[in-house]
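Notes from hallway chat w/ T.B., transcribed later so I don't forget. T.B. wanted the structure written out for a chain they're using in a teaching module, and asked if we could keep both sequence and structure tokens in one place. Agreed to drop them here.
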Amino acid sequence: MLNTSAINGYENLANAIIIQAAEDYRRALESDNRGTQREIERFFRSDWFIVLTDLNPELLLKRLKQEAKNDNKRILKSGISN
């Protein structure tokens, strides 16, 4: 039987995997890297993702895309270009 410390370790690892995927997806959206976007979208919709978290993958993707869209609007309004 796993102790609480081991369970917390697994949960922390699962959370770190999801966070890294979200950060990678943000970068892929920013750089318009569609291949990487599709790869990460497949991960978010995979059985493996469901094992790692109870998050709704479609809602997560929607929010990440909206975040990227809002960031682009802020950049354009401030006059900063890439």
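Follow-up for T.B.: The two ends are 52 Å apart (CA to CA). Might be a good example for the class.
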